[in-house]
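so the lab meeting is tmrw and i was supposed to have these ready like two days ago... anyway. pasting both below. for each one the top line is the aa sequence and the line under it is the C-alpha cells. i havent really looked at them closely yet so no promises
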Amino acid sequence: MDLISINSQELLKRLKHKSKRRNPLTESQNLRQRVAENLKTEMAYLQINNSEFAQMVGVSPAMVSMWRNGKALPSLVTLTRIHEAGIPADKIIKPLP
C-alpha cells in the first residue's frame, strides 16, 4: 500500500506508531547528559573538583571531565566506587528535575 492510497486517519496512526519507537542513540545521549548534570550537582554539593573526585574513585581527572561533559558514562565498577565514595548511584542516574 502506498501513501497515496492511505486515508488520513491511517496515515496519522502510522506516524504515531513510528514516533513511539525508541532511538537508542538519543536514549544514550539523554543518559549521558543526565549523569553529567547530576554528577556536577553532587560534586558541587561536596565541594570537590575533578582531581579530588578522580582520586576518590580511582580514575583520571580527564575521565571525570568526560563524564561531566556528557562524553562518556562511568562503568558499573566505577559506579560502585562512586557509591563507596559517598554519592549513591541512584543520585547519579536519577532523572533530571
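ok protien two:
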Amino acid sequence: MLLFSQSDKLTTMTSELLELEGTWEEILQQADKLAGHRLRVTVLADAPVTSKRLSEFYGILPATKPYPGKAEIRANVAHSLAQQNLKNTDD
C-alpha cells in the first residue's frame, strides 16, 4: 500500500510536503522520482500499540507511591528547620 498526500504527483514535492507510507519495497519503486529530494524515514512498529490499564501503572508514577503520613512529614520538616537554625546560629 503506497499513500500519497493531497495530490498523486511527486513532481510537486518542493512546494508541499509529501507523505508516503508503505513497505520499503513499495517506497523503493518511487526512488527515481524521489532522487535529489531530502527525505525523513520513520520505521513503524510491526505490532499495533496495545493499551494498558491504568492500574498497571500503580506504583510507577510518583503520585501513586505510598504517602508517608503527617507524622513523618512533620518530623522531616522539624529536622530540616532545626538544621537551618543551626546554620544560622553558626554564622
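from a quick look at the 2nd one: The chain has a mean pLDDT of 75. Helices lie at 24-28, 31-34, 70-90. will dig more after coffe
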